[in-house]
Structures are given as structure tokens and as C-alpha cells.
Write a structure and sequence with these properties.
Chain lengths: ~110, ~110
């Protein structure tokens, strides 16, 4: 079955360390997205990519970086510059058709202490 | 910019009660509207959608009608079950098709008691 795989489900890091969250999709979707979810704040867009080797900043890109070397993969790096990195991170993808819904992975919960 | 406003939660109901979760939006043009559901520890799943005014999306007993005159997309269900307990998100795409992602409301936590 096609879908989006995020790994790991839970991730723990010490403050000051960079950490990379994995997102892989086998849906052959063109566009991929990273959202951050915090209690009471809904989902906020970090970065998105509409094609390979191209990506754009979302609303809260500071302290994060991404790459899109392959269509299937869109890893997110949470750098030490991110002031409050503890959150639930969701990856999503979108086919090329207009007004299609986003497909989401099951998320990675990152805890930084 | 575009925005989505949902009623604050948590919303607590008894099993078999009628459910309404309000959603209003601000957007230019004619966005597509969505309701997503999130169960504990999981990602979001599409529940229903509507792409033009007066469209009604429906799925698993849930319904929502795209009301352009009131810029609303309220979620309703006639008889809720304990298994409906989850967080519900209203969202919209831009008129350009949403290639830059969706705009989400803050979510409404629904708790159904037996």
C-alpha cells in the first residue's frame, strides 16, 4: 500500500544537537510538506517542496533546514538554532492535481532536553 | 492572508448526541475546504471535503456544507460514538490549488462519553 512513512516515531535529543527527521513517500506525489503541531496552536507550515531540488520556507522556517534530492524523500533537520524544538512534526504530500487533499504521515514526536 | 477559525475545545458530549463543530474562514477567491481528523498519536486523516459553494462533503456519518455567503463549513453528525473521540481540524487551500499547503484551524478536541 502507498503511503508516507515518518521515522522514528519518538526522538529524544539534548539541547544544542542537530537532529534529522525522516519522511519517505511512495505515492509518487510531487509536493511534500513539513508541519509542526503544538497543543492549542494547530498546524504551522515549516517548509515545503513542489519539485525535486527546490523548496520554499513556510511560516516558521527559522531554525530548520530541508533537502529534496529525491522525489520520495524530504528530510527535516532541526538545528540548534531552533529555540523551542520540542513538538510533534508531521510530514505530508500532495499529488499534482489542484484542490487535492494532503496525505499525512503518522508524525514524529521530538523531545529536546 | 487566509485564516480558519474553529470553536475552542474540548467539546464533551454523550454517546448518540448531535454534534456541531463550527468553522469559519477568511480567504480570497474560492478555496477548497476540508475537515481532517486526528486520533491520539497519529497523523491527520482526511474526513471530508468540498470544492465549491453549496457542495456538501460527507463521510462516516459526518457532513459539512460549503456556505460561501457565511464563509462557513460547519461539521455535523447526527449521533456520535465513543470512537469519534479525536481532534478535528478545519482547513482550506488557496484558489491556486493549495500547492503551498493548507491553512489549518487550531483544532477542536472532541470527547464522547459512554
Amino acid at each position: 500500500d502507498g503511503g508516507i512513512t515518518q521515522s522514528p516515531k519518538y526522538l529524544f535529543r539534548k539541547e544544542g544537537q542537530n537532529v534529522t527527521l525522516s519522511c519517505e513517500q511512495n505515492l509518487n506525489h510531487d509536493a511534500m510538506y513539513w508541519y509542526r503541531q503544538d497543543p492549542g496552536q494547530g498546524l504551522r507550515l515549516i517548509y515545503y517542496s513542489q519539485i525535486v531540488n527546490d523548496f520554499q520556507k513556510g511560516d516558521i522556517a527559522e531554525g530548520y533546514s530541508v533537502s529534496r534530492e529525491k522525489k520520495e524523500s524530504f528530510p527535516l533537520t532541526v538545528t540548534s538554532a531552533q529555540k523551542n524544538p520540542t513538538a510533534f512534526y508531521l510530514c505530508a504530500s500532495l499529488p499534482g492535481r489542484n484542490n487535492s487533499p494532503l496525505h499525512f504521515g503518522n508524525g514524529t514526536r521530538l523531545t529536546v532536553t | 492572508g487566509d485564516s480558519v477559525t474553529q470553536m475552542e475545545g474540548p467539546v464533551t458530549l454523550s454517546e448518540e448526541a448531535f454534534l456541531t463543530i463550527n468553522c469559519t474562514y477568511t480567504a480570497t477567491g474560492y478555496p477548497s475546504l476540508f475537515w481532517y481528523v486526528q486520533y491520539p498519536g497519529e497523523g491527520l486523516q482526511l474526513l471530508l471535503k468540498a470544492t465549491k459553494a453549496d457542495d456538501k462533503g460527507s463521510n462516516k456519518g459526518f457532513e459539512a456544507t460549503y456556505r460561501k455567503e457565511t464563509t462557513s463549513f460547519h461539521l455535523e453528525k447526527g449521533s456520535v460514538q465513543v470512537s469519534d473521540s479525536a481532534v478535528y481540524f478545519c482547513a482550506l487551500t488557496s484558489q491556486g490549488g493549495g500547492a503551498d499547503g493548507l491553512t489549518f484551524g487550531k483544532g477542536t478536541h472532541l470527547i464522547i462519553q459512554p
